[in-house]
Amino acid sequence: MNPFPEIVDDVTYSRIMRDPNFWISQELEDRMIGFITQTMDVSGLLYHLGTETLITQAYDLLPLDDTRISINELIHRIPILINRLTRTVFLNIQNHGPNAAYFLFEYHSRYVEKWYDAIFFQGMLNGLSVLFALKEYSIQMTKTKLFGIHVVHKDLGENIQFGSDANEYLFEWKGDTFFLSRSTLNKDDLSNRHKVMITAKSETTSEEISIIDVNEVVNRSRELAIENRDLEAAVEVLKSFKFELEKKQLSIAKDLKLAKNIQKGLIPQIIPDWKGVQFWSAYSPMQEVSGDYYDYFPFSSDRLGVVVCDVSGHGVPAAFITALSKMLFSNYKKAKPSETFKHINRELLDLVKQQGYSTCVYVLIEEDYRIVYSIAGHPRPILYRARTKKAEIQEGEGTFLGMFPDGGETYRDHSLQLEPGDKLFLYTDGITEAENDVGEVFGEERLMALIEKTDQRTIQESIDFIMAAHKEFTMGTDPMDDITLLGLQLSPRLPEFNEHKARAEKSYSIKNFKDACDEYQKAYEILPRELNTQLAYGRALANSGNFSKATSLLEAYNKFKTNNYLSHAILGYCYYKESHFEKAEVEWKKAHSLNDDNLSILFNLAKVYHKLGKKSKMKDVTERMKKLESNYKSILPLEKKWESMLDEQ
């Protein structure tokens, strides 16, 4: 039945189907192909149709006798075939060396180039490769008039020049080719004289002659086309599976990246100095997210808690338990580490249901530098005594957190006294259980030997030295576990630090800001991460007019402590003095959110809004100031400034 009743009448359709020499207009052809492409992709069919057309029509291009011709000679006869097939386009051939030729298809002026012609013509050139049994060849479109070809461009060519005057293809091949000739023979029935050709290695001799039955070649070509379509369908299915898999992988990667960023926020990059105790850490997760975890917890001003944990397993489940651990250690700030462990063990049992556990070492540093610690199935701390220059593994044991209901009975408190220069190292078993390329374990003894070599090094230099040696030891092997090494040291220069700090505070109290800055600078060089000194130094610099250096110090301070009203207020002042009014606004708004009844901050905000020309915000701040203190002496001039701004508007 006629599938195009709205496009062509039944009689014309019947003639198309019966008579291969029946001509139709380009307009009708375009409408019919357009109709078909609404329901299926015909690109592959058009390509194979072009191949079959060349194979079936090549017989008529051969010499009438049995003269053999090469592929180059047949190529230059293809324009004859094009003239027989269509009146819309003519073909020019240009040789490009002995094994290459350019095919230039140019449309007549009254016809419009079509996308399906580009595919059909390329399929015809593929017919040459079939006839001459080419093993290595390429057919690349190099130019086209079309800007929007309806197939993937790479199917036609890698570097197509669009918007050209014609369609151009480069056909290249390698190696020796056969010679082709016409034959009146049929390999099955000598009386049946249909299209049979002979291929031969030589132009004249009978060496390696083969008979080509065009019908068989076409039938085989169609079988291959069907097989190719089935294969393409299978490939498309695989592509869809691959696409779905890639989507899931991207989703997982996105989730892992999010988890990594969240965990990054849970684990401090740097632990600030505390009362002369300095910290440094090395942290290397095996995967995107880690089961290792460390943190610090201030206990008002007289104590600091430090914890290192190693959660069972890796990846997201382990990272989930590390997040729980942070919450639990923040909630349970008990006077004894063992008491903290008892509470956390019960909580983890309820929350995780024995689906994971954590080893842990928890250290409380007291104001007199006495350390109280407890261990839950974790590697024991290593203490380096500056006086003896020896490293010692400390005592202690206890079971995992979150695994056994009666685990609380195993936790014990132990203590030691830090002296100036002493260092304490907390670590996970990823350090000691790592192996080199011959299976040798890093071990505790090697770690202790390295620690003893850090005598003249700061705690930061000590951690870096140990990790460099560890990396060299494990060179060429994949990490088997997450790695964490945290060190703390009571500064050997603590008395000197205290002297400089006391002199700085005295100079500041009498408004001698220059001397105060000099003394704070010396104290800061000794303990560069001691936050109270950093803030005081930044404040002294701001008062002395050194706004740039003050800004640098206060920005670093605010990375550690985001909730200090004073640091944001002073930083806002420095920005204001440097004419960074937008930044000043941000800092003063933070200060206001931490201390919303402070009139001076509101006054400063009003000033910065005046500088920024934000009239309505300036009015709003002024009104809030009046509610807090109607007689505040600075309100009246602010109101006048605000009114003048309105007048200017």
UniProtKB/TrEMBL annotation:
Residues 276-490 form the PPM-type phosphatase domain. Pfam families: SpoIIE (PF07228). InterPro entries: Bact_Sigma-Reg (IPR052016), PPM-type-like_dom_sf (IPR036457), PPM-type_phosphatase-like_dom (IPR001932), TPR-like_helical_dom_sf (IPR011990), TPR_rpt (IPR019734). Keywords: Hydrolase. The keyword Ribonucleoprotein does not apply. One of its GO terms (molecular function) is phosphatase activity. It comes from the Bacteria. PANTHER family: STAGE II SPORULATION PROTEIN E, STAGE II SPORULATION PROTEIN E-RELATED. This is Serine/threonine protein phosphatase. It comes from Leptospira ognonensis.
